[in-house]
Amino acid sequence: MDFVSPIIDIVSRLMNCCTKHVNYIRALEENLNQLKEEMDELNAVYMDVKNKVNVAEAQLMERTNQVNEWLQRVEARRLEVGGIIHEGTQHLETRCLNGCCPKNCWSSYKLGKMVVEKLILVEKLKLEGELENSVDLVSVYKALKFLGENSVRIMGLYGMGGVGKTTVMKRIYNEFNKDFDIVIWVLISDEVNMARVQEDIGRKLGLSLSNANNIFNVLKTKKYLLLVDDIWQRIDLQSIGVPSPSFHNKSKIVFTTRSEVVCRHMEADKIIRIGSLSWEASWTLFQKNVGRNVLSSDSDIRRLAEEVAKECRGLPLALITIGRSMANKKTRHEWEHAISVLKNSAAEFPGMGDDVLPLLKFSYDYLPNDCVRLCFLFCSLYPEYFEIEIEKLIIQWIGEGYISGYDNFKEAFHMGHDIIGILKGACLLEEGVGHGYVKMRDDIRDLSLWIACECGREKNKYFVKADVGLIETPQTGEWSLIAEKISYFANKITQLEIAPKCPNLLTLLVSNNIELEQIHKDFFLNMPRLRFLDLSNTAITKVPSSICELFEIEFLDISNTNIRCLPYEMRNLTKLKYLFITRCKIPHGIIMNLSNLEFLKLAVIKTWDSEGGFNIDELLYLKQLKSLEIDFYSDSKDVEKFLSYPQLANCARKLRVIDCNDITSLALSASSSASSDLCLGPLKGLEYLGIHHCSEIEELKLNCINKETTEFEGLNESLEKLYLGNLPKLICSWDARNLHLNAHFRNLHFLQLFMCHAMVDLTWLVLIPNLQKLCIQYCGLQEILSSCEEFEGGYDENTFSNLKILRLYYLPNLQSICSMSALRFPSLEVIDVRSCPKLRRLPLDSNSANNTLGKIRGTKEWWNRLEWDNETIKLHLVKFFKEGKKD
To answer: pTM here?
Structure first.
């Protein structure tokens, strides 16, 4: 019977072969329809890749050989497959017996076989194209372009987890594989084991003994490419035998990491951030993982699937994980549920808690210390992508106790800015739209909340309902017993009635509920441990009496509310360290009793003292005070009194003088002060100065005598921001004898002038060498920089060398920015012009703002009227012009 098995095997193989060939004829129509669908999808992928190539080439990058070859193959196959589909459609129309039998079996066989072959080829091309779309192609092009330059020896690729850094490395491997004598790929991961790395390199070099000398002796004679994936800290490759790449050996090292700081520590010649996918690429990748059958199973599912894909925010790992989890969901209800879960509690979505979030958490784990980690977690109390003001955020971190142990607030703020830099470098925070703001991606926010809730084990430890449209707070439940931090930030809540039991609550944010008018007097009674309370930017009219029972509270922000008067009982909140109040009456004795205050923001109004309210002398009782933000309304005498106390003047960080119409002149330093001046010289630590609606001020003195000639004191060294608004008579005067132009106002980077009609020029701006943002609105200027005889050497093409943003709005008399035909503007990013009809020239040429200029905004009519020294300059700059709204 042994001969039977071979016969059965032969017959089986013959039957399979026959079936395969018969199927070419029998399944022709089905295969032809599938080929049409696959070709449509290939065309969509082709257009996505083509668009991304166009974007990259617009940034002066060259397409890679791999991409170019793929595009050419698709273009060739499109014509070829189009002909086959046309031929196949006609063939099916000529079949006999109502389309059941072909007229010519041989012709059907050949056509059917051709359709199957092209179907396989199209699917392969589509898969290759989807790989192109699974990474940020612009970043890929940058990496490949720079790696080809001789000056780039070491390149760092950084980005958040799951964004596709390893995929970019694979592209580099494929593109450069033939250009080097040897290409080595090494995976490091979170636990660095240099002995294992050395062994891996030695094995790939074919060494029996992988020591440093052997590796060095092999590689020193080779042109090598070393690809090091997923490093978390600086690694010393020379210690394991890898010779430094040089211009002579033309070798290269490329590594991936999640931290920009690591790139710098590795001394990378070029650092490239790998960003998220575009929407087109995201959708393509998501469709691939969900599957065509699911997306076509219901007319609504495609629309809902797009919404789910958008929740992934271009993160390839999330697109793949969530796409696969939805691959068998064929009803509208399942997709709507998925959207709800992703928006409200993404960590509970299948695969997120097991695959996506743990991978992203490595970035959190590798933050340098617990202080930075706590600051990161605090950011989740804000809505996703919300523009968070950096200064306010740092103050809140300080108020929470995360940043502590500093003698003065300047040092603490420096630490806060350093933390911001660390979080941005780790891709856990992003730059906001405006300077001075940051934001958090929603996937990173999901990560932050998941970690804050003990990786999902204590779901409501951070109870966050920020910007979700709440009209009232949730009913008290189990969450309130667990919650340590609660955020109702930026909702539509109108009143807080129910007093929740929150025995463990430490932090409560109710700020930015602009419709909130009433809080029940007992609302805070059951929050015995509350230390941090933010009620700012609400419409409440009085402080609930139960706030005065919060004896553990250290941080209280009730600024920008409609509160008319503080309750006298607030004097009992003796643990308060940080208090923010604006324009509400303060009964005498409250402030002086808050002896632990370190940070105070308040307004002083002329009538209060005479009505038995707050007076400046009370501040002298605050022995712990380190930082003071203070507004003076209506009377300069309070300002003078404040300036007479050195211990108070030294604490002032921000000062605003508003509606003080008895001031006629203002001096910024003692050397310029006459007896009639209000002299701000004692404010040696002032960072922000605002002068508003002081209609009688005629002169602002900016005297800056050289220290070698005359001793002076003033806020010249500390001032960072200056606002001058609604000062119709104001002009600025200065004495700059023997002064080098970079001598003073070194820290002043922001200046705004609003409705200062008497000023005709701003030549004194040359005293501000590091000015970054200049905004001039509704002023009578004719020229910004006129003659500069008062200053040694005048000004030159390097004036405004640090200016990034120039906004000129509603300046009907402005004719010129300066007399020079062009300034270098090496840092300039934005020029924004509105209603400056007489401004016919910009001091720009082909060498101005090279590599920095992003846009010149104005009306089309204004742009067309501009005059240039030659047409080449206009042609060079026209690509930066963006049409703004007409006035």
So the answer is: 0.77
Contacts 24+ apart (CB under 8 A), 578-585: 578/395, 578/398, 578/399, 578/554, 580/536, 580/556, 582/631, 583/631, 583/633, 584/558, 585/611, 585/613, 585/614
Burial grade of 14 (CB within 10 A; 0-12, 13-18, 19 or more): exposed
Q: How far is CA 617 from CA 324, 440, 592, 644, 647, in A?
A: 68, 43, 9, 11, 12
- Residue type present at position 227: L
The confidence score (pLDDT) of residue 712 equals: 44
What separation in angstroms does the CA of 219 have from each of 62, 199, 268?
30, 14, 20
Give the pLDDT confidence score for residue 704 in this predicted structure: 54
Structure tokens at 290: 């969900």
Task: Enumerate residues 6+ apart whose C-beta is below 8 A from 95.
Answer: 101, 102, 103
Of all helices (H) and strands (E), which one includes residue 288? helix 279-290
CA distance 146 to 153: 10
Cβ–Cβ < 8 Å for 286, 309: yes
Which of 634, 625, 626, 569 lies closest to 606 in space, CA to CA?
634
Mutual angle of helices 301-311 and 332-344, in 10-degree steps: 20
Dist. CA 90–CA 107, nearest whole Å: 12
φ/ψ of 496, rounded to 5, equals -115, 105
**By C-alpha distance, which of 627, 684, 625, 623 is closest to 653?**
627
Q: What is the pLDDT of residues 636-695, one digit of tens each?
A: 888 999 999 999 999 999 999 999 998 999 888 765 555 557 888 889 899 999 999 999
Residue found by looking up tokens 């697109």 in the block: 319
Cα–Cα dist 71/472, whole Å: 55
* CA nearest neighbour of 52 among 131, 117, 146: 131
Could you read off the pLDDT of 43-96 as tens digits, one per residue? 777 776 776 666 555 554 555 566 667 777 777 777 777 767 766 666 655 654
Burial class for 468, CB neighbours closer than 10 Å (0-12, 13-18, 19+): middle
For strands 388-389 and 437-439, give the pairing: antiparallel
User: What number of residues does the chain have?
Assistant: 887
With 0-12 / 13-18 / 19 or more C-beta atoms within 10 angstroms meaning exposed / middle / buried, residue 642 is: buried
| Residue ranges per structural domain of the chain | 15-132, 137-273, 279-354, 372-452, 749-887
Q: Quick check: 813 and 807 in contact, CB under 8 A?
A: no
**Domain 137-273: which CATH class?**
alpha beta
By three-state DSSP, how is residue 239 classified? Answer: helix
Residues 6 or more apart whose Cβ sits within 8 Å of residue 115:
24, 28, 31, 32, 35, 84, 88
Structure tokens at 412: 């603490």
Residues 6 or more apart whose Cβ sits within 8 Å of residue 63: 53, 56, 57, 71, 141
| Residue 27: partners with Cβ closer than 8 Å, 6 or more residues away | 112
Do residues 881 and 856 lie in contact, with contact meaning Cβ atoms separated by under 8 Å? yes
* Backbone torsion region of residue 135, taken as left when φ is above 0, otherwise alpha when ψ lies between -120 and 50, otherwise beta: beta
What DSSP character marks residue 397?
Answer: H
Q: Which segments within 782-872 are labelled E, that is strand?
A: 805-809, 830-834, 855-858
Within a 13 Å sphere around the CA of 427, how many CA atoms are in the beta-carbon half?
23
Token pair, residue 140, equals 């890929």
- Dihedral angle over CA of 645, 648, 653, 654, nearest 10: -70
